[in-house]
Amino acid sequence: MLRFWFDGNVDGEMVHPVDGKTYSRYLVWHPRDHIEQRTVSPGRGGGQEGAKWFINEFFLSKKTEGWVRGDDAKEWSDQLFTKVVLTVQKLDASGLSLAFQLPGIGAKPVSLTHEWSTTPEGAALVSTMYIGVPNGDDPATKALNSIAKSIFACGGDAEAAARAWQLHCLEEMGNTKFFLPQLYASLVAGDTAGSVGASIPAQ
């Protein structure tokens, strides 16, 4: 089911049953931290591999009621956030691999891999993020890694930013159980609005 989610189904909207309003699926996925997502270019042969996704999200937003369209930019000036284009390197039954195109850097020195499997208790997920190029000891690679860490951390502490991302990831992937099974069923049934429930703690 996670493959279904990432196979073009993060795009689009759904009707929230609590207030009857329509929200982007990306916002339902993590109501507090997510802002915007879209497919910039499709993958090869109609699949997702090679596709480019734009994402804009925060890591542990301090605004507990969530982001609101029309917020003044200064309200988010002290936040950890990412606004990048991701390249899908792999999507199959076993997982998803992404490479990050960081602003101002031609290379893709940040990568993220989700590996999933089925267990008797449900889906098991292992997520790994590399910030910088592993095992790079030459001066050029060290310089690239230093820049990558600074951009990822919005100029702050890369270790703290990585920990914030880790918790953000736990929250968003844990939240899928509240809406993904119902969304899958509604799309298979032809209800493209996808009226489902979703819940995640604000703090």
Automatic annotation (TrEMBL):
Task: Report the leader peptide range.
Answer: none
Residue span(s) of domain DAPG hydrolase PhiG: 105-185
What cofactor requirement does the entry state? Answer: Zn(2+)
The UniProt keywords, alphabetically, are: Hydrolase, Metal-binding, Zinc
Q: Record's InterPro entries?
A: DAPG_hydrolase (IPR041526)
This entry's Gene Ontology molecular function terms read: hydrolase activity; metal ion binding
Alphabetized Pfam families for the sequence: DAPG_hydrolase
Looking at the record's lineage, which domain of life comes first?
Eukaryota
Q: What is this protein called?
A: DAPG hydrolase PhiG domain-containing protein
Organism expressing this protein natively: Monoraphidium neglectum
Q: Top-down, what is the taxonomic lineage of the species of origin?
A: Eukaryota, Viridiplantae, Chlorophyta, core chlorophytes, Chlorophyceae
